[in-house]
Design goal:
The protein is of the alpha/beta class. The chain contains 13 helices and twelve strands.
Length: 353
């Protein structure tokens, strides 16, 4: 547990701890914004050791105990980012994601519920990039073709629609499979956090029917899309719908209900990463428990929800998960967190308690 006043670097510590998961800020901040004022860049090194020591896929020469060393360097002047795994630069950055697995719980997570569909799509895309083989590639192809179609002149726009249809269908299928697998689990996690209503999660695509249906929809919308300067059909327009007793949580949920739903989504994220880890996952670090990071996670929670989250933390710790909690006051957290080894942070420096 790291204790310190606001503005002294607690969130920056968590940012550094989880950056190697997908090589970007968990808050969505640009790399330049993560760099200390006056510095030329940043450098992070993370070592991931799976439970059971199962070896990961070959990127470099992995140690026999399964430990992987992931290093990231960023240069402010050139905006260049270099990633190495065990000292070797992978052929593509996407091949190195998921070697570090982490979940961050924060009061800002309420945006997952109260925010627009784009926020929930990003949640899905990051999670599936970490757990579904081939998802990163499909997403990259889709985004490139999406940008190219928007810029293309009338005769050329159709040339990108086949890529959009094929890659888009893969994205939709992966998202739907995840939602179907974890729909009941979402309700269970909401109950675990104290929700008494019926919590439901569903993936709602704009276009049903796979690649052929998406290809026809793109062709049908081509003229209108050209006038608007954007593509109006496809998985970049889909929604992850969250309801409570049949009503949209984003519209009708109270602040407490939205916060509970956001926690349920993060707990579902941890369960997904844990299940993928048991099977080797995208990064291949088999059996690894995700690092659980609590960035002032107890703020804005009532006493009951604090106690429930504390009980879950105690269970995670008992299952071998590492816990990294950052709080402004140690007195405000449950016993399961207060009993963790303690450090203080002051002006960006970590000190013993």
């Amino acid at each position: 547990m790291v204790v310190g006043p606001n503005g002294h670097g607690k969130t920056s510590l968590i940012e550094a701890a989880v950056y190697a998961q997908v090589f970007r800020s968990f808050r969505g901040a640009a790399d330049r914004e993560l760099t200390r004022f006056g510095s030329d860049g940043f450098w992070i090194e993370t070592r991931a050791l799976p439970h059971g020591g199962r070896a990961a896929p070959e990127v470099g020469a992995a140690p026999t105990n399964g430990t992987r060393t992931v290093s990231i360097g960023y240069d402010v002047r050139t905006r260049a980012k270099r990633v190495t795994v065990d000292g070797v630069e992978p052929a593509a950055m996407g091949g190195a994601i998921g070697l570090v697995r982490a979940v961050v719980l924060s009061p800002a997570d309420v945006a997952l519920v109260a925010g627009g569909p784009k926020t929930r799509r990003r949640y899905l895309d990051v999670l599936l990039a970490l757990t579904v083989v081939g998802y990163v590639g499909a997403l990259a192809r889709y985004r490139r073709a999406l940008a190219q179609r928007a810029r293309a002149r009338a005769p050329e726009a159709g040339a990108f629609e086949n890529v959009l249809a094929e890659s888009g269908a893969l994205i939709v299928a992966a998202r739907r499979a995840w939602a179907d697998r974890w729909s009941a689990g979402y309700g269970e996690q909401a109950v675990a956090m104290g929700e008494r209503g019926e919590s439901r999660l569903a993936y709602v695509p704009r276009t049903e029917g796979g690649a052929d249906a998406l290809r026809r929809a793109l062709e049908h919308s081509r003229s209108r899309d050209r006038e608007l300067g954007q593509t109006t059909v496809g998985p970049h327009r889909d929604e992850l719908r969250l309801t409570l007793d049949g009503r949209a949580l984003r519209t009708y949920g109270s602040a407490g209900q939205q916060r509970t739903a956001a926690l349920a989504l993060r707990l579902l994220e941890a369960a997904t990463l844990r299940e993928a880890g048991a099977g080797g996952g995208v990064g291949g670090v088999g059996g690894a428990e995700p690092l659980m990071c609590l960035d002032d996670a107890f703020a804005e929670l009532d006493t009951e929800r604090c106690a429930r989250l504390g009980a879950l933390i105690e269970r995670w710790s008992g299952q071998g998960a590492q816990i990294l909690a950052a709080v402004p006051r140690a007195a405000d957290v449950p016993d399961a967190v207060a009993s963790l080894p303690r450090w203080r942070v002051c002006d960006g420096r970590i000190e013993g308690a």
